[in-house]
User: Which sequence fits this backbone?
């Protein structure tokens, strides 16, 4: 009754073959990540110390630490977040909860997708034109962060919109039928149930912002600046640009130094991602339906 | 225009529907419906899928601003007031309780589900909310099952409990009309009977419009019943008469007897 026919056997063999193939592809995919991390840890690991993290570069950036760049990157990320999160979340709420489906919203959606596809160097030049020159912020943290914010807005908008739309429509209908307004519905039911997705998008954006080089190199990041920035109108060093500079622009840098800088940068990004994942798991555990 | 002379003594009409048509874009969901719903009656609506029953309820509760492309033509009078001219639709919807086919426990605690609408009305005092929550859960025959877990999630209750929770939630609106849209579709027969008993009691206090896919449910509960078919109201009459075969249209009888639909 249950004997395998030839066709069954063939299907079963085929199935394990495909499984193996897909598994292999996945392994190939993570290989670069593993190699990068491995090389960085082996080559850059010896450079890392508390002193490396908390002192400034010395001897024409061929020695010393990364402290001004580390602090600068945090400044850039925080200011960029302050600009892009309120704007992006508000736009996503509008698009998902208020806007009706007409040519205008379709055009806006198209614009957002295209904004995500603009190369970062183009964003950089836009930042120079708009923030450095037109708004006259000069080359400053403010100009650089706003450029980063514009660049990462699509990520925030799309992540937020998707997590808003993951909240079942029936919840909204039930609220509306009780006489709740759109905003009451959003505040009491939709947002509390999509906050985990929104935060994930935000933290994803953070990690991307921290690593970007092109958008900040003309708008606010300095080649070498041994002081910490005092406000948003100061220039600053940044990890990503610092890595570029000591790898290609400065002669006589000991080999372990760029690896060390890269390791610190990637460590920042990965730890932010780890926090994001942990946070998402925590919020998912509290999910209510 | 023909002036209709009502033969029965004038009863207090809660809802009057005149020449109601509902469109979704180019699609007509309901055409030229005329009917009245009396105060404190249970008004049944039967008909197969796609007959416009749910659209009718959406029109009564004026959910059209939340529904893309939905257009209402004709008049719906609530206590004699034209609902198309209401300025505050939110206040209007608060007077109408709605129960959906699939139970929608909001992702809030049992307590907060029921307290949702009183809070919208601005009731903040804990003692007052406590009283409303207990009273409405008792009315919906759910209190005994949930009184020890009022702060557990409403969406984790069983289907039948959730449906009674949505009825308690609707009652907390202190509604004048209760609209039920095939409430028993996802509920076991025992719970269905319990809810039907609740509805019989509620009739004393409010007007109920009961859309149902179960012909026998209309027979058990409704004072009068309307038969909808593919976007038209075929007829409306006393439930007892319809089920005794006193029908104006052969299709009504065929549907009631289960020969189609």
Assistant:
């Amino acid at each position: 009754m249950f004997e395998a026919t030839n066709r069954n056997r063939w299907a079963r063999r085929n199935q394990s073959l495909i499984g193996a193939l897909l598994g292999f592809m996945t392994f190939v995919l993570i290989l670069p990540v593993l190699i990068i991390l491995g090389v960085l840890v082996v080559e850059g690991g010896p450079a890392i110390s508390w002193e490396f993290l908390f002192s400034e570069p010395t001897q024409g950036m061929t020695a010393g630490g990364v402290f001004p760049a580390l602090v600068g990157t945090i400044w850039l990320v925080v200011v960029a977040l302050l600009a892009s999160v309120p704007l992006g979340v508000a736009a996503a709420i509008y698009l998902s909860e208020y806007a009706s489906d007409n040519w205008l919203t379709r055009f806006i959606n198209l614009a957002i997708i295209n904004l995500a596809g603009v190369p970062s160097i183009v964003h950089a030049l836009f930042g120079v034109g708009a923030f450095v020159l037109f708004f006259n912020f000069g080359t400053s943290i403010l100009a650089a962060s706003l450029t980063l914010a514009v660049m990462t807005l699509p990520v925030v908008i799309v992540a937020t919109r998707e997590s808003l739309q993951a909240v079942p429509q029936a919840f909204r209908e039930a609220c509306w039928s009780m006489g709740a307004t759109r905003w009451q519905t959003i505040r009491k039911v939709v947002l509390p149930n999509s906050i985990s997705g929104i935060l994930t998008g935000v933290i994803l954006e953070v990690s991307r912002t921290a690593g970007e080089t092109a958008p900040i190199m003309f708008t606010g990041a300095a080649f070498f600046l041994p002081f910490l920035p005092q406000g948003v109108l100061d220039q600053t060093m940044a990890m990503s640009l610092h890595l570029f500079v000591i790898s290609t622009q400065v002669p006589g840098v000991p080999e372990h130094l760029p690896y060390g800088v890269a390791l610190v940068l990637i460590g920042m990004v990965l730890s932010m991602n780890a926090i994001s994942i942990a946070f998402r798991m925590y919020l998912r555990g509290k999910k209510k339906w | 225009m023909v002036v209709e002379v009502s033969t029965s003594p004038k009863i207090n009409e809660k809802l009057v529907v005149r020449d109601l048509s509902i469109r979704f874009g180019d699609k007509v969901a309901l055409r030229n419906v005329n009917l009245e719903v009396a105060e404190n009656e249970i008004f049944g609506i039967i008909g197969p899928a796609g007959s416009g029953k749910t659209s009718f309820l959406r029109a009564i509760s004026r959910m059209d601003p939340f529904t893309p492309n939905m257009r209402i033509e004709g008049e719906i009078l609530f206590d004699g007031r034209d609902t198309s001219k209401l300025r505050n639709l939110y206040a209007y919807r608060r007077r109408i309780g709605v129960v959906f086919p699939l139970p929608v426990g909001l992702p809030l605690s049992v307590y907060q589900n029921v307290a949702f609408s009183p809070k919208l009305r601005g009731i903040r005092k804990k003692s007052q909310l406590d009283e409303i929550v207990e009273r409405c859960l008792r009315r919906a025959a759910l209190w005994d099952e949930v009184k020890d877990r009022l702060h557990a999630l409403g969406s984790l209750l069983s289907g039948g409990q959730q449906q009674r929770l949505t009825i308690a939630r609707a009652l907390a609106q202190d509604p004048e009309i209760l609209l039920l849209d095939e409430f028993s579709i996802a509920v076991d027969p025992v719970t269905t009977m319990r809810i039907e008993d609740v509805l019989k009691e509620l009739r004393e206090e409010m007007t109920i419009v009961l859309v149902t896919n179960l012909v026998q449910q209309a027979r058990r509960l409704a004072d009068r019943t309307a038969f909808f078919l593919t976007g038209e109201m075929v007829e409306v009459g006393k439930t007892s008469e319809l089920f005794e075969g006193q029908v104006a249209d052969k299709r009504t009888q065929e549907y009631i007897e289960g020969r189609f639909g």
Observations:
- The two ends of chain A are 43 Å apart (CA to CA).
- The mean pLDDT of chain A is 89.
